[in-house]
Amino acid sequence: MACPFLQDPVDIEAQIIHRTLHRERVIRPRLDMLSFPEEFLLERCRFSSQSILHLNNILKPHVSNTTHRGSALTSLQTLCIALRFFANGSFLYSVGDAEHTGKATVCRSVRKVCLALKQLLYSFVVFPGQKPLMNIKEEFHRIAGCMDGTHIPIKAPAENEGDYLICDVTNIITNVEAKWPGSVHDARIFRESALYSKFDQGQYDGILLADRGYPCMPYVMTPYPDPEPGPQSHYNLALCRTRARVEMTIGILKARFQCLRGLRVTPERACDIIVACVVLHNIATIRREQHPAIPQINDEEEPHVDLPEHRNGRIVRNAICKHHFTD
């Protein structure tokens, strides 16, 4: 039998082996995402065509390939692949089938965009916000922000990522902490954050609203554990209604980026994806992009723990209750 590694083998057997070993590489035509209607883009990428071009201009220096050999993806194609993954959270091969790429290409594209957005974290996620603190407090009834924690399930390994975030009145996330396992209590996550140290040192003059998962402090107002009828009950009701803003923000974030309903990555990469989605959420909010309907939130609440309250925190809370909720 002739050698099958020759360019044109004579024997039939060698030709069969040659065709098996030398399969022609087939490159499927790439999709032009911007040629689709706006409704298609909003449903699959969560951004309009103009916003996708805006994102591409921001991320192009970070995600562009250094070579054009081998039909390399453009920065726009890389971005659209990552946006589709963030938006639907399906398997990588499903995203690849939709985008006419392979699973490995999807994985690399998502990783590139995640790292690029992570570099922009402190440009788009800024506490107390893009406006001066005084203006934010005037818009938000003297409140600097609302704070809450949420769990991001990780399916492999089977655990949760515990995160907390702070939002303003416009549903923009002004602070995020995404590096703790889900077993860590919300209060500890906040206590170990850099923002806690800055509040404790008096660098910010404002109040954060939180639920009973956090201790009452001079700059963190929580509900009364057992409110008495009258001012305390009115205070609890007002706090609950105002703090609903952060629950709405978490709902919008998870509805907009379905991948946060369950990630199939390592905890380290899960942190990067969460940060990337937070940055994209703020960009979408600033550009007034539509968001999907918010489903009923079924996140498990933190187990009730009687956290010690700071004496100064109780004094501030009682003063607020007396001056603003007394008939």
What does this structure look like?
The protein is built from 13 helices and 5 strands. The chain is an alpha/beta fold. A 5-stranded mixed beta sheet has the order 3-2-1-4-5. Strand 2 and strand 3 form a beta hairpin. Helix 4 packs across helix 6. The model has no long low-confidence stretch (mean pLDDT 84).
- Series of H and E elements: HHHHHHHHEEEHHEEHHH
- What does the largest sheet look like? 5 strands, mixed
Total strand segments? 5
Number of helices: 13
- Percent range for β-strand residues: 5-15%
Percentage of residues assigned to helices: 40-55%
The average pLDDT score comes to 84
Gross morphology is: elongated
SS-based structural class? alpha/beta
**Distance N to C terminus:** 102 Å
**Uncertain stretches of 5 or more adjacent residues:** none
Rg (C-alpha, Å):
25 Å
Strand order of the largest sheet: 3-2-1-4-5
Oligomer: single chain
Pfam families: DDE_Tnp_4
Protein name: DDE Tnp4 domain-containing protein
GO molecular function, one term: metal ion binding
Subcellular location: Nucleus
What's this entry about, in short?
The protein is of the alpha/beta class and 327 residues long. It is built from 13 helices and 5 strands.
Topology, pairings included?
Blueprint: H1 12-21, H2 38-45, H3 49-63, H4 75-88, H5 92-99, H6 103-119, H7 121-124, H8 133-139, E1 145-155, E2 158-167, E3 173-181, H9 186-191, H10 194-200, E4 208-209, E5 220-221, H11 231-256, H12 267-286, H13 311-324
Parallel strand pairs: 1-4, 4-5
Antiparallel strand pairs: 1-2, 2-3
Keywords: Hydrolase, Metal-binding, Nuclease, Nucleus
Pfam families: DDE_Tnp_4
GO molecular function: hydrolase activity; metal ion binding; nuclease activity
